[in-house]
Amino acid sequence: MSLRPLVLVVAPGDDIYRGYCLRQVADAYDVAVITTGPLTWEQPHVVDHEIVEDFEDEAGLFAACEALAARHPVAGVVTWAEGHLTAVARLAEHLGLATTSVESVRTCRDKAASRAAFATRGVPSAQSTAANSLHEALAAAKAIGYPVVVKPASVGGSIGVIKAETQHDLAAAYAFATRGVQLHGGDNTVVLVEEYLSGEEVSVECVTYQGVTTAVALTRKELGPEPLFEEIGHTLTAGDPLLATVAPIAAAAVEATGTVNGIQHVELRLTPSGPRVIEVNGRIGGDWIGWAVWRATGLSLPRIAADLAVGQAPALTPTRQQAVAIKVLYAPASGTLAQRAIPATFTETTGWVHGPAWLMEEGDEVLLPPEGDLDSARVGLFATHADTLDLAVARRTVTANHIALTVTADGQQ
Prior knowledge:
- By secondary structure, the chain is α+β, with helices and mostly antiparallel strands.
- The chain contains 13 helices and 19 strands.
- The strands form four sheets. The protein has an eight-stranded antiparallel β-sheet.
- Helix 3 (85-95) runs antiparallel to helix 4 (102-109).
């Protein structure tokens, strides 16, 4: 019988985006998982498993957890899936386990509630107004002043987020944000109209233990062309000097949400008037950002999340000083993916390429924004690492030049 505590992971996700999370937790803990189907890639890393058809079915989720708890003492419960954060917080409270409150999770997930919390606590953010109709959105934009950003209040991954330069653009922007809500759900169906914040976008990767937030890394984001805010790349350097400047603001934003334990991915814009908070995500960042933190600093955010879940103080002293550059591969056009390839000899011999991991197969249909979204437009992603950021970025460029992406327009032979 294992002497390691058991951590329950709800919705471990797919191997491409979140496989590293489950593996890093399993390195330190016994792991049980709750999924919506039979185990596949997770099998080697778990000791037990239950299936629920719908994570929003609270009774079914609780029953699955209780079935596991009858077979093993459950020491902690975690998820890194944005859509299930609220349900898992309820589950942790039901089990009497170390957690932050359901209310704080909802505050993070509901961007309108976050903005209100930031305003109350004096955290620099953006003007924001909830809109339940185009008429309300037009009135909000007029009051705030153009340009504005229109986005769902409770959907992640930059889905449905778009800039409206003028009143002429607002109807289409509101429709785009509304479509994001309809396709991807969320805790509510509200659309926000917000002040546009100019400047470089960054995220601060934070750990909060017993109400004290520590900023462990800073990620610099690379975005596609406006009016959309698609994330196409990230860079992360251990000991980035900017971290000291933005860390107090990120910590204040986390505190404003009422969060006392957990991992946070806090997004900010470095505006001419100073850093201002976009949102607090109560989870490990996507696009391999958690892997990049580990590669650059030696700190495993998934392992730390498990530590917090079982009530253990996390170790937050970096053990590495490296840099990582991530590239998200988008198709060059909408159509049929005819080719996606990289020479095997290149990745096998370099030693500094992670991936590429392919999200689409040749023959799949690709649909770029604004008609599509990240699920229909992303073909894959890869990362490179080095002792310095300049070298990591240079290696990313070299790797990208070895990748072939070809799309055939629909209707062509």
